[in-house]
Amino acid sequence: xxxxxxxxxxxxxxxxxxxxxxxxxxxxxxxxxxxxxxxxxxxxxxxxxxxxxxxxxxxxxxxxxxxxxxxxxxxxxxxxxxxxxxxxxxxxxxxxxxxxxxxxxxxxxxxxxxxxxxxxxxxxxxxxxxxxxxxxxxxxxxxxxxxxxxxxxxxxxxxxxxxxxxxxxxxxxxxxxxxxxxxxxxxxxxxxxxxxxxxxxxxxxxxxxxxxxxxxxxxxxxxxxxxxxxxxxxxxxxxxxxxxxxxxxxxxxxxxxxxxxxxxxxxxxxxxxxxxxxxxxxxxxxxxxxxxxxxxxxxxxxxxxxxxxxxxxxxxxxxxxxxxxxxxxxxxxxxxxxxxxxxxxxxxxxxxxxxxxxxxxxx
Amino acid sequence: xxxxxxxxxxxxxxxxxxxxxxxxxxxxxxxxxxxxxxxxxxxxxxxxxxxxxxxxxxxxxxxxxxxxxxxxxxxxxxxxxxxxxxxxxxxxxxxxxxxxxxxxxxxxxxxxxxxxxxxxxxxxxxxxxxxxxxxxxxxxxxxxxxxxxxxxxxxxxxxxxxxxxxxxxxxxxxxxxxxxxxxxxxxxxxxxxxxxxxxxxxxxxxxxxxxxxxxxxxxxxxxxxxxxxxxxxxxxxxxxxxxxxxxxxxxxxxxxxxxxxxxxxxxxxxxxxxxxxxxxxxxxxxxxxxxxxxxxxxxxxxxxxxxxxxxxxxxxxxxxxxxxxxxxxxxxxxxxxxxxxxxxxxxxxxxxxxxxxxxxxxx
Lengths: 363, 363
Hints:
The structure is a homodimer.
Chain A: E1 2-4, H1 10-20, H2 23-32, H3 34-45, E2 56-59, E3 62-65, H4 72-90, H5 97-107, H6 114-125, H7 130-151, E4 161-162, E5 165-166, H8 168-172, H9 174-195, H10 201-213, H11 220-230, H12 238-263, H13 268-295, H14 298-301, H15 307-310, H16 316-320, H17 322-340, H18 345-360
Antiparallel strand pairs in A: 1-2, 2-3, 4-5
């Protein structure tokens, strides 16, 4: 008896079948079970047919395949393995070692890889393959990591704990932490520009511009500047709160999705729909972050909890109350899903599940 | 009597002639002076015919033109005006105002614009026009400015004075200074990707990668990390000193030249020669910086002088003695110019003069 693990992306799954089984065995599979043949044929036609997971066991020439609903846990686990491997290989330790170690310390600290997954899922939804967007998926995670390292600095949010570990400057010193952030920021563009495969230069260039825009004064930096300016001010209104969230959090989530769609070969109207989807889940992400800060402990979050309250920071729970904040989160999730209605529901399953995950996450 | 200012770039100069003089006047010029006709014809053929400046005075149908040697002062003044105008327009003050003001404070603080000029000169040397490389020229200056802002931070070199003015964090605070650097870094890539004109996406993408490489762990960041690690260590050798200089200073100067050549449409062998030219003047730049630190006052430099000595930093004058350091600088300048020998000497005049300027500058 021979077992095959086919839970990797569908492109790879088909490759495993073709490589592992001789032609007769493959034919045998087709003869044994017409339902399975249909599933396999679909998988061959749609490399992003992710709403089905298949477990196959080959016994001599007998293969059993099961159709299941889209399994988000399996999807996330598979994508995280691919992304972590790509990130690990993208930045190796070389001279000077300390800066590379500092970059890797934060980059490989077990983040949830939400942004890379959004990037890959958007790419595959519009017909691209994982290779088209993997460099971009790594790039958005590098940018995200850089923003965390710099935001945690003593002159900014002054945080000691991140993802359950001491923050970068606590381990490597403030000077190296600033430089590790700078290097990650620059390398994100280098990696996107040089390691993207199977995409035209013009599309990669649009992706470079989209990524850059999400970092600067129309993205992360604008959000952090406004956030710092509002800290300690109890009179921050809903409009300013939304400005902060849209820039500090939503901009990079939006870029992750949009870049994936661009690199996957998406048509303009597809990219537009996915942009609006991403804007909704981007704001949703931060609303949930605000909620978690008041409902969870530091150990549950892996970072300092209750910090918003401690510094009298304006948050959605503070402005709207906890229940209304939760309702607003649900509305945003609904709006996000509406944007996906025009796509094939099987193909859109990963993005739908990612939106639900962002809405319902516990840390 | 009508006078024309033709000291702008040659592309613009020709435009002035065509727009200012009726066809007859233009013909008149050709008839009057066959030598002038030749100069003007050359200027029309070679938009980068920068080794000649022309002043033309039209008196009815009579035009007098003079051929002069390449005037570096005029060249630098013209290019600086163009670059400063482009930088001023690239980053306007908008919401949130403080971060844009902080970015502009350092970006428009009267830098010498050596990197943008190298970029433009390399572009024009290989046959490109100023428009092809102006966005890139701004981008390299944004990166340079970002590295100054971050290097001046208290957790790094802790400098209070830069270009004769209080450093960015002294005016805007450390948090905003970190973010202004981040925003300049990201915007450099956005501007290069979106504001470059008349160049194919594939060449722009190569330029993006080249620029990014010059910032991270193969460029500025590597140099600064090694520099910080060596500060206070009196036993730093020549090899490490060169590592620091090549990464901290030469990498971005190299990128400036190479990107200009790529965007100007340079052939591979032209780009290679200009890369080697840039590597020489890059190292030269820092050797001269070391020399100036021990020979000039703070007011002459516009930044804290004698600082290297005060912190017992290893420099070329310290390792080689002042005279040998000056000889080394002269050798590097000679090597740089050798790389330009294959180019038309008229067209190469700006780069030759820029190398001399870097070798002989007084601040």
